[in-house]
Amino acid sequence: MNHTTIGQAQVDRPTARLSLAYVWVAYAAFGLAALAGMLQGMVRGGLVELPSWTNYYQILTAHGVLMALIFTTYFIIGFLLSGVAKTTGGSLHGTARGLGWTGWVLMTVGTAMAVVTIVTNDASVLYTFYAPLKASPYFYIGAALLVVGSWFGGFAIFSSYRKWRRENRGKLSPLFVYMSVTTFVLWLIATVPVAVEVLFQLIPWSLGWTPSINVMLSRTLFWFFGHPLVYFWLMPAYIAWYVCVPRVIGGHVFSDSLARLAFISLLLFSMPVGFHHQLMEPGISAGWKMIHVILTLIVVVPSLMTAFSMFATFETTGRKKGGVGLFGWFKKLPWSDVRFFAPFVGMLFFIPAGAGGIINASNQMNAVVHNTIFVTGHFHITVGAAVALTFFGVSYWLIPVLTGRTLTRTANRMGMVQTVFWSVGMFLMSFAMHYLGLQGTPRRTDYTTYMDHPLALGWMDYQRVMAFGGGLLFVAAVLLILILGYLTFYAPKGKTEYPIAETEAEQHTPRILERWPVWVGVLLFLIVMAYGIPIADQLTHNPPGSPPIRTW
Amino acid sequence: MHLHRYEKIWLSLGAGGLALFIVLLCVNAFAMGMAPPSNMEMIDPAKVTETPPFDNPGLKKLSDNEYDAYMTAFAFGFAPNKMEVPVGSKVNFHVTSPDVVHGFQIPGTNVNFMVMPGHINSASYTFDKPGEYLILCNEYCGAGHQVMATTIIVK
Amino acid sequence: METRTDTQRQMDKAKKPQPESQNLKGTFIAVLLVGAIILLSWFGVFGLFLGRA
């Protein structure tokens, strides 16, 4: 069922250049962030001491901002723009490309501003920038430019989608496009509260225009954004799982309508749930916390659907290739193809990651793990393994597609080695983190023995395991950048397929899944229900605000 | 929309499991009184040191085996610095911050909450075993965050 | 070009079997294992929470 016409460009040159510009900023940030991350691990394991011109929290800020905000956002926009181009005829029209480049410029200016303030140690506030810790105003302005720039990436996708719909009236949009649009509808709505926080609270306050800040409100606005942020990372990985991986293994999309339903559910239920990041905070009633917890557990369902769809794709494909018995199909999967292997390992990581996420969100149970390094372990296996490994797996074919080169056998083999290093490193590090977190070891903390308290001394062995895992991860990161550099500049020229799977048989997808006003309406209703009263309360019933403070 | 029979069963089991979690959490939180720390009291963060009882942080004895501990968490320490209670004591911690956001955690117990300027947060714990319990800050608060800790001695 | 491939695709699809007949026993067992991991870890930490109260 391959309808890709050989000889026709997968993604035309101008679009490929745009996409590649995003992907490479992503990997530049990734490389720096990996170095910072490795150093943190070594410091915490008590293996090295940082020179006096830097400190743990500065490199921690760099790691978080570059990895969680820059790497992810750039890669996602670059990947989705290329896929939208591929599935709507091979190119983005001029308007969409213009929007894409505008976004890239805004984001890159913002990133540069934020990075400079971090380097000068004027923004050691970590990537959550919780008030009343006050960073340089340029850090917040940089963050605002990054967010606004990313909106333009979304506008480019919406513009292509509208053009496609005008030209294909009455037809169901390609699955990749639909999922990209859903991802950016989520992103545009989710970034509004953090934009409000940055523009109306943090920037005026950091410039001294307003004397104090409503701390509670700033945190609520941040986490209103912070949870959909993790779905903004996850959804592009799901796109690769639903649409690209099935094609890589020679299979089909299991169910078009279920894939779309999963995405609509993620859009609806990833938003009205932010209080599950604030469960241990004063000033939010236990009742409102519970409401957000219940909505959070509902957002698990689309991931349960995804688990089924993935296994089903693997099983039907493996059986077609001659796999028999209960699990014979499993052996028929292309285990030596990094384009499959890397995202597959990512999926495996997502099983304990999902289980850990449910634990984190479970209201009072959060007391066991809140702000412990369990949480750090959790998001290193969600975004750092499930999402990152998928992005690596995508990069191994996306970069050759964009540069008109091929993934050679050797590059594929090196990719396999890289995947193994990353996975083993991540497994060791995150296992130690989960274990330590359950003992109460705090996250985001420089090397310390708490005045040689026996409990803290007992944590040290596992902190060394973390450091070892971090070392392996760094090796994998260097290897990855070398391979991607090779694929960009040196690999032999040739045709590489942009893997886009289709359904095997005609499926009837309910048209309501593509009626955006309905879903955006439902989403706004849920947001008002979940946040209306608490935010009104925080605006009217609040303690005296906090002045800006610099404690580093 | 077509759903495979197994997928229907799987999603029903999944939704059922999640519903079970919700029911257990609700019963435990609201009927057994184990809801997360959600104190709604407020305070002027600029005036913590002059607002009773935080002007004089320390243990206040309520009965033979129950204490209120009024504490402040600041960059980079806790007040009071040392506390001691007999084995079997229930301690109700009430903590606020005069500066940035801090954390308050006693590893090995469920005492783990955020301390925010402008708010007072609370949690209780009954110390049934003797020892020197570590109290640490688990929210990044600045250059000295890693030294922000104290202990409570249970004899 | 686009339309022609589309019609062709629909004709091809009409002949294919419906997903009804798919054998998904392995998938079912696999997702049940996922469910078991979620249940076990959740109750493990819930037990820890109750034990530390």
**H/E topology pattern of chain C:** HH
Helix tally of chain C? 2
Distance between the termini of chain C: 68 Å
Alpha-beta content class of chain A: mainly alpha
CATH architecture of one domain in chain A: Up-down Bundle
Derived from helix and strand composition plus strand pairing, the structural class of chain C reads mainly alpha
- What portion of residues of chain A is helical? over 70%
CATH class of one domain in chain A: Mainly Alpha
Query: Share of helix among residues of chain C?
Result: over 70%
Give a short account of the largest sheet of chain C. none
Q: Whole-Å distance between the termini of chain A?
A: 60 Å
The shape of chain C, in one word, is rod-shaped
Q: What is the CATH homologous superfamily assignment of one domain in chain A?
A: Cytochrome c oxidase-like, subunit I domain
Shape of chain A: globular
Largest sheet of chain A: none
At the third CATH level, what is the topology name of one domain in chain A?
Cytochrome C Oxidase, Chain A
